[in-house]
Design goal:
- The protein is built from five helices and five strands; from the N terminus they run H-H-E-H-E-E-H-E-H-E.
- It is of the alpha/beta class and 121 residues long.
- It has one domain: Ribosomal Protein L15, Chain: K, domain 2.
- Strands 1, 2, 3, 4 and 5 form a five-stranded parallel beta sheet that branches.
- Strand 1, helix 3 and strand 2 form a beta-alpha-beta unit.
- Helix 1 runs antiparallel to helix 2.
- The longest helix has 14 residues.
């Protein structure tokens, strides 16, 4: 399947998830994230903060293979990795004390040990 990766971060996500898919630890997780990223932009996830708040728990690691939108309030602290953040979502995540990580940081953290992670789409 040919992917028209129009942005640099899409190419980066594809490369890291492809590398993770071949790894022994969390290979299925990275394969699932890879398949969610390898779609046209209009089919990628757009998730509001209130949905992330509802589906995640305090201290959990969350991956959003798409864009995080700023509707709602975050009631607890999480570690979050996403392709894009709206301006209001970034402000809300900072206000609530959440850690915003790059995909490479998440990949390194997961390769060191078994960490619970949740994919929200």
């Amino acid at each position: 399947m040919k992917i028209n990766a129009e942005k640099l971060n899409v190419k980066e996500w594809m490369a890291i998830t492809e590398k993770g898919r071949r790894a022994e630890l969390h290979g299925k997780l990275w394969g699932k994230v890879n398949s969610m990223v390898a779609v046209p932009r209009r089919r990628r996830a757009s998730v509001n903060i209130n949905k992330i708040n509802k589906l995640s728990k305090d201290g959990e690691h969350v991956i959003v293979p798409g864009k995080v939108l700023g509707v709602g309030r975050m009631g607890h602290k999480i570690k979050i990795t996403a392709m894009e953040y709206s301006r209001s979502a970034g402000e809300e995540l900072k206000r609530s004390g959440c850690s915003v990580l790059s995909l490479n940081d998440t990949y390194i953290a997961l390769s060191k040990g078994k960490t619970a992670i949740r994919i929200i789409k």
